[in-house]
C-alpha cells in the first residue's frame, strides 16, 4: 500500500513539474498568459457565485463554479501553450508536419508526399473535409509542387474535394499556429467509410520516402541527388 502511495505521489509531482515547465516556456512567448488564466478562472467562478446568490445557493454554485473555473483555465492554458509552441516552431522545416500529427482524431496524415531540391515540401491530411495538402517553403515554388500533387491524385480520387494550404505569414497563407484551427473549420463533406476508402486509394501513391529507391546500407560519401530532386511515382 505504501509503495502504491509513493508511486502516486511521484507521478503527481512529475505532472506538477511538467505543468510548471510548460507554463515557463509558454510565458516566454505569451507574456499575458498569467493575466489571461487569472481572468478566466476568477471570471468563471464569479459568474457562478453571482448566480448562486441570486437563487439562494451560493455554496453549491460556488463549489460547482470552482470546478468549472479550473476546467476552463486548463483548457485555455492548453490552447495558449499549444499556440506558443507552434509560434516558436514557425519557419522551421517540418513544423507543419508536427501540427498535422497533433490535429486530432478523424484525420490521417502523411508527411512529405512531395519535395524539391530546395526542401520545399508538401504534406497530406485526409479527413471528413476531404484531402488537405499543406505546403511549406517558398510560396512561388510550392505552387508547382501542389499542382503536381493534385494532378497525381486526380487519377484515383477525382471525386474527393482537395484543399491546399501554404504555411507562412504572407498574404493568402496560413500561420502555423492557426493551421489546426483552419483545417478544423473546413466543411465536412465525407462520411467515415468514404474517408477510409480515400485513404485506401491514396495508400497506393505512398509518400516520398517510401517511393524513393534508396540503396541498403550507409549512403556513399559525396553522393548527390539527381537533377530535378526526388519525386513520388
TrEMBL record:
Biased composition (Low complexity): 219-233
Membrane-spanning parts: 33-53, 59-78
Annotated InterPro entries: DUF4191 (IPR025445)
Region of interest: Disordered: 210-233
Keywords: Membrane, Transmembrane, Transmembrane helix
Pfam families for this protein: DUF4191
Name of protein: DUF4191 domain-containing protein
